[in-house]
Specification:
Tetrahydropterin Synthase, Chain A; 5-stranded mixed beta sheet; 3-stranded antiparallel beta sheet; alpha+beta; 3 domains; 12 strands; about 300 residues
Length: about 300
């Protein structure tokens, strides 16, 4: 065999690596690429999160990476992180009110056309096992695409079934339960669980507030007059009972006097000073009282 056609491997390696030894910049560049590639292949999922994998060839993979370390193919498999912890979405007219993401209060119309404003908080979390479906069907913008418009529509439709006076008083809990049930159904379609819905405050128009205040004043005045009338009725009833008692006492006393005429003398004596036994009633008559009338009964 012709030695000129034989490739000397050792000599070739020496030439290649010899260039790297003489060019530290090239060697550093190769090491940097290796480190970056290795780092991209390792994905660490933090506590309270899940990772969806997007494959450049097949699209969203039908799996969710749980907490811990995972190996992916760099530049082909791309991780997308989602929080599966309970989050709070607040719609309030108060600045800085509530934790988490917030938005303005909801303006609604009641069934009798009254305008009201509702402050509401939603506690929700993503279903850990089906986050990949949410990513495929909706994407990371689920708050703007699903939750916000869904809440607005459901709350407005629910409030429209009640007159303003029921929203103000007796039906608020029913409205909250109705809203929570419908939000649960609506979000479940997109693999989101609504943990709790709180109607935190309801603001009415100034005109309605004044009308309610006037009604309260009228009710208080009515209650005061009712109290006065009840008191007068009770006093009247007391006097009637007292008069009936006195009449009965007089009737009985008259019967007793008729049966025993000396009773008049006894009552007269009971009212004079003790020890008096003779009374001159006028210049012509003297009343001698028997000693038995002074004996204690």
């Amino acid at each position: 065999m012709n030695n000129d056609n034989v490739i000397d491997i050792d000599r070739l390696n020496a030439q290649v690596f010899g260039k790297f030894k003489n060019s530290p910049i090239i060697l550093f560049f190769i090491i940097a690429i290796a480190v970056i590639t290795l780092s991209k292949s390792i994905t660490i999922v933090e506590a309270g999160k899940r990772v969806v994998v997007f494959n450049s060839f097949t699209g969203v993979e039908q799996r969710t990476l749980g907490e811990g370390m995972h190996l992916l193919v760099p530049y082909i498999q791309t991780p997308v992180s989602y929080s599966v912890r309970t989050n709070t979405y607040t719609m309030s007219s108060q600045e800085g009110e509530g934790a988490g993401v917030r938005d303005g209060a909801l303006n609604c119309l009641t069934s009798d056309g009254q305008k009201i404003q509702i402050d509401l908080s939603l506690r929700y979390h993503l279903n850990p096992e089906t986050v990949w479906k949410l990513h495929k069907e909706v994407g990371p913008e689920f708050l703007d695409k699903i939750i916000r418009p869904g809440i607005r529509s459901i709350v407005r439709n629910a409030v429209a079934n009640y007159p303003v006076i029921e929203v103000y008083s007796s039906k608020r809990q029913d409205i909250q339960d109705d809203i929570e049930q419908k939000i649960n159904v609506a979000l479940a379609k997109y693999h989101i669980t609504a943990s709790e819905v709180l109607v935190r405050n309801v603001t009415f128009t100034e005109e309605f507030a004044k009308a309610v205040e006037m009604k309260q004043v009228a009710l208080q005045e009515s209650e005061r007059m009712r109290y006065i009338l009840d008191k007068e009725r009770q006093e009247k009833q007391r006097k009637i009972i007292e008069a009936e008692g006195e009449a009965e006492a007089i009737k009985r006393k008259a019967a007793a006097l008729k049966a025993n005429p000396q009773l008049i003398q006894y009552e007269y004596v009971s009212k004079i000073a003790p020890g008096v036994q003779t009374i001159i009633t006028n210049q012509n008559s003297i009343m001698n009282l028997p000693s038995e009338m002074f004996k204690k009964q």
